[in-house]
Amino acid sequence: MMRGTMTEKTEAKLQAIVRAALELPPQVDVTRVGQDTVATWDSLAHAMLMVAIESEFGLSIDAADQLRLTSYPAIRDYLAER
Amino acid sequence: MNFLEARRVLDDFRGGEPLPFVLALSGTAEPFAVYLRAAAAKRGRDAAVSFLPFNTLAQALRRPPDPAAPEVFLLLPWDFVPEADWRLGVAPSVDEQQLRSHAVETVTLLARRPAAKLLYLPAPVPPFCADPARRTAIARWIESEAVGLGARVLPADAFTLGSYFSSGCPVGGAWIGKVAEVVVEAVLAPSPEPKKVLITDLDGVMWNGLLADDGPDGIAADPSGRGYRHFVYQGLLRRLRGEGTLLAAVSRNDQDLVAAPFRSGRLLLREEDFVAILASYHAKSAQIRELARQLNLGLDACVFVDDNPVELAEVSLQHPEVRCVAFPAHDDDLPVFLDTLAGLFARRSITAEDRERTELYRRRLAGMVPSDLEGADLTGFLEGLKMRLTIHDRSREDRTRAVQLINKTNQFNLNGRRVTDQEVDAVVAAGGRLITASLADRTGDHGEILACLVAADGTIRSFVMSCRVFQRRVEYAFFGWLAAQPHPPTGVQWAGTPRNAPFQQFLADVAGPLNGAGVVPLNPATVVARHGRDLALFTVSGPQ
């Protein structure tokens, strides 16, 4: 993964993680979701999502970063920067 | 197992036997859910996992466990020492004594849940005391307390501070799948119920030497030289007995002989430390079965210790539930042996009832007599030993060992008669023979273990065998071999002694019922026909 960019494969993987972790139905556009628009995205689901991302991408996310990764675009950008 | 793989496993899972359990940890456990369910599904089980409410582990420990839901505790340093919790920051000061007493309280509460499976995650701790050496010492002490409770220690790397800070889940994404697998394995592992009865052999195990041959003064179990190994073993048994383990002894010996060493005051253990001391020449498996029946305990509660691989095989074949442990042949193997034994009887707590258990069961077993039932068929096991019998003609020379064997063997002895070298000379000069046999097998070289003095008229005057090789059918094979030789013996000079019951049993097998002392006739053709199968267990060479 190049700094600031994300391959299609990686992005597809991220979408699969977010969709599965938040149990989003197929018709929802996962690239636009955020904690303020998805009812199932509570603090517990957020913890599970963060662990899922760490698990899939083999990284550790600092607490401060975890607190601001509350939308798909934020997560996408964060991963693209890593 | 990462997240998407866990999801795939669950999507493909078609259901299985429910696996209810509680994962108890102080923090947020919910992120584990999908990984735990997937780990269970991979093993064909449908996990029904529940968690404690956030940070309520200390309260949960004070409630009785739910028997329907096995518990797995994922313990962290701050479950023992709250001052070590990162989420509380760094304490301005700590009272080390108070800190240790809190830890001991947690240990005590955990010890009261013997069915719980424990995992310990040795997470790094904040600098809660000024001296780093003290902090390290406390951290290691906590870990040793957890290990002392039987906890499996996880890699410290599994702790993730970022995850713990942000959500309270102490394990981050890199490790959560692996830890979930360990949790499910712990749930599925059978509960290591401590064993209840330790059944021990005597000769070569409780002491060095053979009681029937060496006498009570010739055996050794003192803290010096050849007795050391047995002294240490008795020390462990004494401790286990004090913790509630029932001790019993099963020995190939005479009943009137075996209690004497325990009454002499020379051994660490006394007669009253045992619920039963059973001496018999019948199968040990039969004694163990009867003992368990009279104690009203399952055979799976029993551990059997013997130094003879044949005895261990016989018990193991007949009672696979009994845990058989070999007494070590070398001092260097003693630590592992003792550790194994102590682990089988490990208890997290000991009650007054545990300490009084021996006396209670002694009363129940008062008057118990050994069983005379048959043991397991050892043919298959004996074939696997690849036994090699070497026959020696000692008529003319090198018969020191043979004469020594005749003069020191009490149990497997035709008539108890002692001989001098001159007497052997006279028998040989008159046309007789002195034949011995050495035995070697997969377990080692047993040396010259049998001696037979045959007079010129075909009567066996002396026949002895070391009791170290009982159960291997050596005596039957030797008789089968001897009967097939030119000029085979036609009788044996039999006499009963207070100690030769094993020979009487053998002779009755070979020659039929005995009527008093005197020459018992032998029919070589019958012996050959009857014991050819025993002879086939050995590769025989000689006479040399």
SSE layout and pairings?
The complex is a heterodimer of chains A (82) and B (544).
Chain A: H1 8-22, H2 43-57, H3 63-68, H4 72-81
Helix pairs in contact in A: 1-2
Chain B: H1 3-12, E1 17-24, H2 33-42, E2 45-51, H3 57-61, E3 71-75, H4 77-80, H5 96-111, E4 117-120, H6 132-148, E5 152-153, H7 161-166, H8 173-188, E6 197-200, H9 211-214, H10 228-242, E7 246-251, H11 255-258, H12 260-263, E8 274-279, H13 284-295, E9 302-306, H14 309-318, E10 323-326, H15 334-344, H16 352-365, H17 379-384, E11 387-393, H18 400-408, H19 421-429, E12 433-441, E13 444-454, E14 459-465, H20 474-483, E15 491-494, H21 501-511, E16 518-521, H22 524-535, E17 538-541
Parallel strand pairs in B: 1-2, 1-3, 3-4, 4-5, 6-7, 6-9, 7-8, 9-10, 11-17, 14-15
Antiparallel strand pairs in B: 11-12, 12-13, 13-14, 15-16
Helix pairs in contact in B: 1-2, 2-8, 5-6, 13-14, 20-22
- The number of helices of chain B is 22
Name the overall outline of chain A.
globular
> How much of the residues of chain B is beta strand, in percent?
15-25%
Give the tally of structural domains of chain A.
1
Rg from alpha-carbon coordinates of chain A: 12 Å
Main sheet makeup of chain B: 7 strands, mixed
| Assembly type | heterodimer
- Unreliable residue stretches of chain B: none
Side by side, the strands of the main sheet of chain B go 16-15-14-13-12-11-17
CATH architecture of chain A: Orthogonal Bundle
Give a written overview of the molecule:
- The complex is a heterodimer of chains A (82) and B (544).
- Chain A is mostly helical and 82 residues long.
- Helix content of chain A is 56%, strand content 0%.
- Chain A has a single domain, classed as Non-ribosomal Peptide Synthetase Peptidyl Carrier Protein, Chain A, CATH 1.10.1200.
- In chain A, 29% of the residues are buried.
- With 544 residues, chain B is an alpha/beta fold.
- Chain B has three domains: 3-188, Rossmann fold; 197-365, HAD superfamily/HAD-like (Rossmann fold); 381-541, Gcn5-related N-acetyltransferase (GNAT) (Aminopeptidase), CATH 3.40.630.30.
- Chain B has helices at residues 3-12, 33-42, 57-61, 77-80, 96-111, 132-148, 161-166, 173-188, 211-214, 228-242, 255-258, 260-263, 284-295, 309-318, 334-344, 352-365, 379-384, 400-408, 421-429, 474-483, 501-511, 524-535; strands at 17-24, 45-51, 71-75, 117-120, 152-153, 197-200, 246-251, 274-279, 302-306, 323-326, 387-393, 433-441, 444-454, 459-465, 491-494, 518-521, 538-541.
- A seven-stranded mixed β-sheet of chain B has the order 16-15-14-13-12-11-17, with helices on both faces. Chain B has a five-stranded parallel β-sheet with strand order 2-1-3-4-5, sandwiched between helices. Chain B has a five-stranded parallel β-sheet with strand order 8-7-6-9-10, with helices on both faces.
- In chain B, strand 14 (459-465), helix 20 (474-483) and strand 15 (491-494) form a beta-alpha-beta unit.
- In chain B, helix 5 runs parallel beside helix 6 (132-148).
- Chain B is elongated and about 100 Å long.
- The chains are: A mainly alpha (82), B alpha/beta (544).
- The interface between A and B is medium-sized, with 27 and 24 residues.
